[in-house]
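Subject: sequence -> structure tokens, single chain

Hey, anyone have a minute? Need the predicted structure for the following. Not urgent.
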Amino acid sequence: MLTKLEMPSYYFLNLIDISIGGERLGLPPTIFSGPGTMLDSGTAFSHLPPSAYSTLRNIFRNYMRNYTMAPPMFNLDTCYDISNYPMVLVPEVSLIYDGKVTTKLDSTGILFVFNKSRACFPFTQNKDDSEVVIIGSMQHLTFSVVYDVGNSQIGFGANGCS
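Reply:
Had a minute. Here:
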């Protein structure tokens, strides 16, 4: 667990990379650590630096190229109409943290279904690379998140919200 003097009531951790389809994006870790990465249960969707977001989104879109795109919803620009598909296969996405901690996201953290005609990639882009990175509740919904403030540690366990 990391702290920021200017935001003392928030919990930060060191995101070092993201993988999609088993392959790391390979971005410089400072893209996340420079502004800091906040774990925020009060924010639904994750907010990433523009360079990280565009790389992740473009790879995701490539994996999803056989599905029909739908118009954006709110600030989510990658949406699909899945009404004609009995099953939707999404690529595996994992968040990789310092300390050899990897959280493999549940499908709800990869594709959020508003309704059958609108399912969106629940990540969004910050205005610039200096804004705080936010890991939102959709990405840790299926984990039990433990905040050990006394020992300055954050833990992730199975069987969070279902």
